[in-house]
Protein backbone atom coordinates (compact mmCIF):
# COMPACT_ATOMS: atom_id res chain seq x y z
CA UNK A 1 0.00 0.00 0.00
CA UNK A 2 1.33 3.43 -0.99
CA UNK A 3 1.38 6.37 1.38
CA UNK A 4 1.68 10.09 0.52
CA UNK A 5 5.11 11.67 0.98
CA UNK A 6 7.15 14.66 -0.09
CA UNK A 7 9.77 13.60 -2.62
CA UNK A 8 12.97 15.58 -3.18
CA UNK A 9 14.80 14.88 -6.46
CA UNK A 10 18.18 16.67 -6.68
CA UNK A 11 19.07 18.59 -9.83
CA UNK A 12 22.59 17.18 -10.17
CA UNK A 13 23.79 19.74 -12.72
CA UNK A 14 22.55 22.72 -10.70
CA UNK A 15 23.82 21.25 -7.42
CA UNK A 16 27.27 20.60 -8.92
CA UNK A 17 27.44 24.17 -10.23
CA UNK A 18 26.70 25.54 -6.74
CA UNK A 19 28.95 23.02 -4.98
CA UNK A 20 26.11 21.30 -3.12
CA UNK A 21 26.76 17.64 -2.33
CA UNK A 22 24.23 14.85 -1.90
CA UNK A 23 25.33 14.60 1.75
CA UNK A 24 24.46 18.27 2.29
CA UNK A 25 21.00 17.75 0.81
CA UNK A 26 20.47 14.70 2.99
CA UNK A 27 21.59 16.52 6.12
CA UNK A 28 19.28 19.46 5.45
CA UNK A 29 16.23 17.25 4.97
CA UNK A 30 17.05 14.98 7.90
CA UNK A 31 17.68 17.80 10.37
CA UNK A 32 14.48 19.59 9.32
CA UNK A 33 12.10 16.62 9.33
CA UNK A 34 13.58 14.24 11.92
CA UNK A 35 16.36 16.01 13.77
CA UNK A 36 19.98 15.06 14.33
CA UNK A 37 21.23 11.59 15.19
CA UNK A 38 20.62 10.55 18.78
CA UNK A 39 24.32 10.45 19.69
CA UNK A 40 24.77 14.01 18.36
CA UNK A 41 21.84 15.62 20.15
CA UNK A 42 22.55 18.23 22.85
CA UNK A 43 21.59 17.15 26.36
CA UNK A 44 19.79 18.96 29.15
CA UNK A 45 21.51 17.98 32.39
CA UNK A 46 19.16 17.34 35.29
CA UNK A 47 20.15 16.16 38.80
CA UNK A 48 19.36 12.51 38.08
CA UNK A 49 19.25 12.19 34.29
CA UNK A 50 19.90 13.80 30.90
CA UNK A 51 17.19 14.77 28.43
CA UNK A 52 18.02 14.86 24.72
CA UNK A 53 16.95 18.02 22.88
CA UNK A 54 15.69 17.35 19.35
CA UNK A 55 14.88 20.36 17.15
CA UNK A 56 12.88 19.89 13.95
CA UNK A 57 10.18 21.54 11.86
CA UNK A 58 6.60 21.71 13.09
CA UNK A 59 4.51 18.83 11.64
CA UNK A 60 2.22 21.29 9.86
CA UNK A 61 5.20 22.97 8.19
CA UNK A 62 6.69 19.61 7.17
CA UNK A 63 3.72 19.16 4.79
CA UNK A 64 4.25 22.56 3.16
CA UNK A 65 6.26 22.20 -0.06
CA UNK A 66 7.02 25.92 -0.25
CA UNK A 67 8.39 25.94 3.29
CA UNK A 68 10.58 22.91 2.59
CA UNK A 69 11.89 24.54 -0.60
CA UNK A 70 13.22 27.38 1.54
CA UNK A 71 15.41 25.12 3.67
CA UNK A 72 19.01 26.30 3.66
CA UNK A 73 21.64 24.00 2.18
CA UNK A 74 25.39 24.48 2.48
CA UNK A 75 27.37 24.78 -0.75
CA UNK A 76 30.90 25.72 -1.75
CA UNK A 77 29.72 29.16 -2.84
CA UNK A 78 27.64 29.77 0.27
CA UNK A 79 24.16 28.91 1.53
CA UNK A 80 21.44 28.20 -1.08
CA UNK A 81 17.76 27.31 -0.96
CA UNK A 82 16.84 23.63 -1.26
CA UNK A 83 14.34 24.51 -4.00
CA UNK A 84 17.14 25.94 -6.18
CA UNK A 85 19.03 22.63 -6.36
CA UNK A 86 16.18 20.08 -6.19
CA UNK A 87 12.67 19.44 -7.45
CA UNK A 88 10.18 19.07 -4.57
CA UNK A 89 6.76 17.53 -5.13
CA UNK A 90 4.12 15.40 -3.46
CA UNK A 91 4.27 11.72 -4.33
CA UNK A 92 3.66 8.30 -2.85
CA UNK A 93 5.96 5.63 -1.54
CA UNK A 94 5.76 2.21 0.10
CA UNK A 95 4.24 2.11 3.57
CA UNK A 96 7.01 -0.27 4.66
CA UNK A 97 10.56 -0.75 3.37
CA UNK A 98 12.17 -4.13 3.90
CA UNK A 99 15.95 -4.32 3.76
CA UNK A 100 18.54 -7.05 3.40
CA UNK A 101 22.18 -6.14 4.08
CA UNK A 102 21.13 -2.46 4.06
CA UNK A 103 19.64 -2.76 0.56
CA UNK A 104 15.94 -2.48 -0.23
CA UNK A 105 14.40 -5.91 -0.60
CA UNK A 106 11.26 -7.13 -2.34
CA UNK A 107 10.29 -10.77 -1.72
CA UNK A 108 8.42 -12.75 -4.39
CA UNK A 109 6.73 -15.92 -3.13
CA UNK A 110 5.63 -18.52 -5.68
CA UNK A 111 3.17 -21.39 -5.22
CA UNK A 112 4.60 -24.45 -6.99
CA UNK A 113 1.31 -26.41 -7.17
CA UNK A 114 3.15 -29.70 -7.17
CA UNK A 115 5.70 -28.75 -9.84
CA UNK A 116 9.45 -29.20 -9.39
CA UNK A 117 11.16 -26.10 -8.07
CA UNK A 118 13.98 -26.40 -10.62
CA UNK A 119 11.48 -26.35 -13.50
CA UNK A 120 9.66 -23.30 -12.13
CA UNK A 121 12.94 -21.46 -11.52
CA UNK A 122 14.10 -22.19 -15.08
CA UNK A 123 10.87 -20.71 -16.49
CA UNK A 124 11.16 -17.67 -14.21
CA UNK A 125 14.77 -17.00 -15.22
CA UNK A 126 13.68 -17.10 -18.88
CA UNK A 127 11.34 -14.11 -18.37
CA UNK A 128 12.56 -10.91 -20.08
CA UNK A 129 12.14 -8.91 -16.85
CA UNK A 130 14.62 -11.15 -15.01
CA UNK A 131 17.01 -11.40 -17.94
CA UNK A 132 17.60 -7.63 -18.00
CA UNK A 133 17.32 -6.25 -14.47
CA UNK A 134 17.72 -2.48 -14.01
CA UNK A 135 20.99 -1.06 -12.77
CA UNK A 136 21.42 -1.56 -9.03
CA UNK A 137 18.87 -4.41 -8.90
CA UNK A 138 20.08 -7.95 -8.35
CA UNK A 139 18.48 -11.27 -7.52
CA UNK A 140 18.91 -12.96 -4.14
CA UNK A 141 17.83 -16.58 -3.85
CA UNK A 142 15.99 -17.61 -0.68
CA UNK A 143 13.96 -20.52 0.61
CA UNK A 144 14.00 -23.77 -1.37
CA UNK A 145 15.90 -22.19 -4.26
CA UNK A 146 18.66 -21.06 -1.91
CA UNK A 147 18.89 -24.49 -0.29
CA UNK A 148 19.01 -26.18 -3.69
CA UNK A 149 21.80 -23.84 -4.86
CA UNK A 150 23.74 -24.47 -1.65
CA UNK A 151 23.31 -28.23 -2.15
CA UNK A 152 24.65 -28.06 -5.72
CA UNK A 153 27.47 -25.80 -4.57
CA UNK A 154 28.43 -28.21 -1.78
CA UNK A 155 28.28 -31.11 -4.23
CA UNK A 156 30.50 -29.21 -6.65
CA UNK A 157 33.02 -28.46 -3.88
CA UNK A 158 33.02 -32.13 -2.83
CA UNK A 159 33.59 -33.25 -6.43
CA UNK A 160 36.40 -30.74 -6.82
CA UNK A 161 38.05 -32.04 -3.65
CA UNK A 162 37.77 -35.63 -4.94
CA UNK A 163 39.23 -34.72 -8.33
CA UNK A 164 42.06 -32.66 -6.86
CA UNK A 165 42.75 -35.37 -4.27
CA UNK A 166 42.87 -37.98 -7.03
CA UNK A 167 45.29 -35.88 -9.07
CA UNK A 168 47.53 -35.31 -6.05
CA UNK A 169 47.47 -39.01 -5.19
CA UNK A 170 48.25 -39.96 -8.78
CA UNK A 171 51.11 -37.46 -8.87
CA UNK A 172 52.48 -38.74 -5.57
CA UNK A 173 52.33 -42.33 -6.84
CA UNK A 174 54.01 -41.39 -10.09
CA UNK A 175 56.82 -39.36 -8.50
CA UNK A 176 57.46 -41.25 -5.26
CA UNK A 177 55.94 -44.71 -4.92
CA UNK A 178 56.44 -46.02 -8.46
CA UNK A 179 60.18 -45.09 -8.64
CA UNK A 180 60.78 -46.67 -5.23
CA UNK A 181 59.00 -49.89 -6.22
CA UNK A 182 60.87 -49.93 -9.54
CA UNK A 183 64.19 -49.54 -7.69
CA UNK A 184 63.38 -52.43 -5.36
CA UNK A 185 62.30 -54.63 -8.27
CA UNK A 186 65.43 -53.75 -10.25
CA UNK A 187 67.64 -54.52 -7.26
CA UNK A 188 65.84 -57.85 -6.80
CA UNK A 189 66.36 -58.77 -10.44
CA UNK A 190 70.02 -57.87 -10.27
CA UNK A 191 70.40 -59.93 -7.10
CA UNK A 192 68.72 -62.91 -8.76
CA UNK A 193 70.93 -62.57 -11.83
CA UNK A 194 74.01 -62.50 -9.60
CA UNK A 195 72.78 -65.50 -7.65
CA UNK A 196 72.11 -67.47 -10.82
CA UNK A 197 75.53 -66.53 -12.19
CA UNK A 198 77.29 -67.64 -9.00
CA UNK A 199 75.41 -70.93 -8.90
CA UNK A 200 76.18 -71.57 -12.56
CA UNK A 201 79.85 -70.94 -11.94
CA UNK A 202 79.81 -73.27 -8.93
CA UNK A 203 78.16 -76.06 -10.96
CA UNK A 204 80.66 -75.64 -13.79
CA UNK A 205 83.56 -75.83 -11.39
CA UNK A 206 82.10 -78.93 -9.71
CA UNK A 207 81.68 -80.83 -12.96
CA UNK A 208 85.15 -79.94 -14.29
CA UNK A 209 87.46 -83.09 -14.17
CA UNK A 210 90.33 -82.92 -11.76
CA UNK A 211 93.83 -82.81 -13.31
CA UNK A 212 96.50 -84.90 -11.52
CA UNK A 213 100.17 -84.00 -11.68
Kindly describe this structure.
By secondary structure, this protein is α+β, with helices and mostly antiparallel strands. The protein has a domain at 2-96: Multidrug efflux transporter AcrB TolC docking domain, DN and DC subdomains (2-Layer Sandwich), CATH 3.30.2090. It is 50% helix and 17% strand. The protein contains seven helices and eight strands, in the order βααββααβββββααα. The strands form four sheets. A two-stranded antiparallel ribbon has the order 1-6. A two-stranded antiparallel ribbon has the order 2-3. β4 and β5 form a beta hairpin. The longest helix is centred in the C-terminal third of the chain and has 65 residues, at 143-207. The model has no long low-confidence stretch (mean pLDDT 76).
Number of discrete helical segments:
7
Strand order of the largest sheet: 1-6
CA radius of gyration is 41 Å
Helix content: 40-55%
Give the second-level CATH assignment, the architecture of one domain.
Answer: 2-Layer Sandwich
Largest sheet: 2 strands, antiparallel
Identify the CATH homologous superfamily of one domain.
Multidrug efflux transporter AcrB TolC docking domain, DN and DC subdomains
- Looking at the structure, the CATH topology of one domain is Multidrug efflux transporter AcrB TolC docking domain, DN and DC subdomains
Overall pLDDT metric: 76
> Structural class, from helix and strand content?
alpha+beta
The tally of beta strands, per DSSP, is 8
Percent range for β-strand residues: 15-25%
Principal-axis shape: elongated
Name of the level-1 CATH class of one domain: Alpha Beta
- Give the N-terminus to C-terminus distance in angstroms: 131 Å
Give unreliable regions as ranges: none
One letter per element, helices H and strands E, the order comes to EHHEEHHEEEEEHHH
Amino acid sequence: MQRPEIQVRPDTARAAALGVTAQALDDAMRLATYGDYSNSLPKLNLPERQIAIRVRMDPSVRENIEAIAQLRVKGNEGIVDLGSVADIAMGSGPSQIDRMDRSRNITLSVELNGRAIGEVQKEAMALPALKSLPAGVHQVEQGEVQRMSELFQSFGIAMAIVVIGGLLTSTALSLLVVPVIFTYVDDLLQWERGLVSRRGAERAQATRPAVSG
